[in-house]
Structures are given as C-alpha cells and as structure tokens.
Amino acid sequence: MLHPPETTTVPAIPLLNMSNHVTTRVLAGITVPHTPLITKALTYARKHLSDSAYNHVVRSWLFGHVIASKIPDFQMHDEELHAVAAILHDLGWDKTGELVSKDKRFEIDGANAARDFISREGEMKDWDNHRLQLAWDAIALHTTGSIALHKEIEVRICCIGIITDFTGPEKSPGGVLTRGVWDAIVEQFPRPGFVKDVVDTLCGLCRNKPETTYDNFVADFGLAYVEGYNLKGNRLIDILEAAK
C-alpha cells in the first residue's frame, strides 16, 4: 500500500517543460517527484493492474529513479515523464480487459493506453508531441533493450528500471543500486508470486492472441508452457521459404 505522501518543495534537477522547483514525496525511503499527473498515474495503474503487476511498475519506477540519480549522464532528464511511463508501462496487462486489443503486442497496448491517459489527464501545455512520443517509445520499447538503450535518456532509464526488477541490484549499471535500497523498496512493494504472475500473463498472451507473440520473446513462454503453441509457419524463415 502507498503511504500518505511526505511532501516538500525543494530545488530539483530541471525537468523538460516544468519548473525548476517541484514538490516531492518519499516512497520506500526514496525522494521522488510528486505531481498531479504522477498521482493520477498511480491511481490508474492501481485500477487496471493486479497487485503483483502494480508493485512491479512502482518498483521499476523507483529503481530507475535511484539508478539515474547515481549516473551523471542520466541526471538531466524529465523525471515526470520517466515516472508516468514506468508506472503505466504494463497497461497492456490490464486485468479489466478494457485496454487490451485483440491484435497488438501488449507493449503497444500499454503505450497507446498511456498516451491516451496523458492526453486526457495531463496539462497539455506541458505535453507537446515530442514529450508524448517519448512516453510512448519508453513503454513500447521497454522489452527491447537492444533498441531502447540506444534512445533518449528517459527511454533508457525506463528500460533500465524495469530490467533491474528482473535481474536484481547487482546487475544494475555499475552496480549503483545497492542491496539495501533494493530491500527497502521491495519491503514496501513486495514480490510474492511475481515470477509466476509474469509467466501466467505471458502464457495467456500466447493462448489468447498468439499472432502478437511470434516475433518476440513472449514466444519462448508459449513454446515452453502452452500446449499446442507452435511457431512453424509463422517465423520469418517460413514466410521467406513459402514465397520462393
């Protein structure tokens, strides 16, 4: 559960399209930006995600925030954009089904839903097309580190925070996320059943819309766990050979 925010106004790293002074709050001992849109994003994620997925997206935000604060090249970034993208990055796993398409990868469902949310709830004077696109890219590419880690800082930080929730603090860039910080975050946003829930969710994608999984890592879960799931005929090599 989220604790009531401890808020204060302090000088902060300059944010794109935002004041040099932002309100902050403390979560799991981490001082993070506290804006109306971030609060709305947390509420929206809470509505649409399971307990396990909600804790995952908040951990991903906090891990990314801490890592960015320790790496000089990452410190000048749009903290609100990173927060909102990280918090909303798994809307493609929406438990209500309202945000899930029949024909798109879950990352695209999440990116589209987040863009719609920001357009509806954000101050549009602060969200030009470029900033919206960065949020969309951060979510759409969060499972494709080989691309995301070569894009803008906010996209990279979002991807790194999410990856770290799967790999642990020792594999954070330069090992800058300590085990003590990790443990404090996990204590407030725990991980029981997280791995099982991820496997169940990805297997569900393989069963319910397999055509969105053939060209990406989700196929690995279908091949390992889903009876009848088969890539034959759907691989690029199959398509090329059929076109001879």
From TrEMBL:
- Listed InterPro entries: HD/PDEase_dom (IPR003607), HD_domain (IPR006674)
Q: Name one Pfam family in it.
A: HD
All copies of the HD domain together span: 54-157
PANTHER family hit by this protein = CYANAMIDE HYDRATASE DDI2-RELATED
Listed name of the protein: HD domain-containing protein
- Recorded source organism is Lachnellula subtilissima
Its taxonomic path starts at: Eukaryota, Fungi, Dikarya, Ascomycota, Pezizomycotina
